[in-house]
Specification:
This protein is α+β, with helices and mostly antiparallel strands. The protein has three helices and four strands; from the N terminus they run αββαββα. Strands 1-2-4-3 form a four-stranded antiparallel beta sheet, with helices on one face. A hairpin with a 2-residue loop joins strand 3 and strand 4. Helix 2 runs antiparallel to helix 3. It is globular and about 40 Å long.
């Protein structure tokens, strides 16, 4: 998997509302808040199943109703199409 070109990255970031670049890394991040822990954990479960199908797994943490996510493809050393696909899935699950 190859890292995204500058043009493709800019196109993707226009669509990925709420996602921002991670300072000092070729990665993107988003923080989500839910009604409570149960809602946050349910969201994480849905993302985990989708990530497993993509064979691409997020860096994330959960504290009560907050889920913080970082996406980057370690094998490629940065952002790839896989990260964009997973971010789009995460956005759909968060709606």
């Amino acid at each position: 998997m190859e890292r995204l070109s500058l043009q493709r990255r800019e196109e993707a970031m226009k669509r990925l509302v709420g996602w921002t670049a991670v300072e000092g890394r070729d990665a993107i991040t988003r923080s989500l808040r839910f009604k409570d822990f149960n809602a946050a954990f349910g969201f994480m479960s849905r993302v985990a199943l989708a990530a497993e199908k993509l064979d691409h797994h997020p860096e994330w943490s959960n504290v009560y109703n907050r889920v913080d996510i970082i996406l980057s493809t370690h094998d490629a050393g940065g952002l790839t199409e896989r990260d964009v696909m997973l971010a789009e899935m995460i956005d759909r699950f968060a709606e």
